[in-house]
Structure to design on (227 residues):
């Protein structure tokens, strides 16, 4: 069974940092790209970023709203992806989801999300 | 950068009725890499349709997708009580963008 589990969310002050984890199981993790998508309270889905697989040099891409502040990494030996979030702003408050995809395919499995609250 | 605009923002219908949701892209969606997701409160999005018109595994056939280029439609032929939710279109492939969502409510 495919599973994706996010962790690491919590309350952080503006300007602070947080590292989210996404642990996957039930599929060949190294074949897949992983994306992070966030959803602010009561709002729609916003793409955050993507990490490609080893065959594509683990290349990363980010939304303009987080570029330069957020960075993604992955450890295929642990079937995990990480989202390092620095210089957090109140507008980064959201539920953060990780989801898997193959190249030119949609996001077919999502985790249940982890809530990040940026507030003083 | 592609912008996806969904309409209507809210849709009030009764069980048994037909729902038609629209997603318009600001430029042509490459290879019709357009998906639809359903999201219920407190849950992650669930993939319904990919490639504009292909149902994902396990999705009932009352859900259908159509369209190409810049105009796409999600149709639910006969609404079941469990279909009332928020629906998002998503352009995937070389980039990834979501529409703002359509909330389907019980009338």
């Amino acid at each position: 069974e495919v599973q994706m589990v996010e962790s690491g969310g919590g309350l952080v002050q503006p300007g602070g940092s947080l590292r989210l984890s996404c642990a996957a199981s039930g599929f060949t993790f190294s074949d897949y790209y992983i994306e992070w998508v966030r959803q602010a309270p009561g709002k729609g889905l916003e793409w955050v970023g993507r990490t490609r697989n080893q065959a594509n040099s683990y290349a990363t891409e980010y939304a303009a709203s987080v570029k330069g502040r957020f960075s993604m990494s992955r450890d295929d030996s642990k079937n995990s992806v990480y989202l390092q979030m620095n210089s957090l702003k109140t507008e980064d408050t959201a539920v953060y989801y990780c989801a898997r995809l193959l190249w030119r395919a949609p996001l077919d499995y999502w985790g249940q999300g982890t809530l990040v609250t940026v507030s003083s | 950068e592609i912008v996806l605009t969904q309409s209507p923002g809210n849709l009030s219908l009764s069980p048994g009725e037909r729902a038609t949701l629209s997603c318009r892209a600001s430029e042509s969606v490459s290879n019709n890499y357009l998906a639809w997701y359903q999201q219920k409160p407190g849950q992650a999005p669930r993939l319904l349709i990919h490639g504009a018109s292909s149902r994902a595994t396990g999705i009932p056939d009352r859900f259908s997708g159509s369209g190409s280029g810049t105009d796409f439609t999600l149709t639910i032929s006969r609404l079941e009580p469990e279909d009332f939710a928020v629906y998002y279109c998503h352009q995937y492939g070389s980039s990834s963008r979501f529409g703002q969502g359509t909330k389907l409510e019980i009338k």
User: Anything to note?
Assistant: The mean pLDDT of chain B is 97. Chain B touches chain A at residues 31, 33, 35, 37, 39, 43-47, 50, 56, 86, 88, 90, 92-93, 95-101 (CB under 8 Å). DSSP finds no helices and eleven strands in chain B. The two ends of chain B are 36 Å apart (CA to CA).
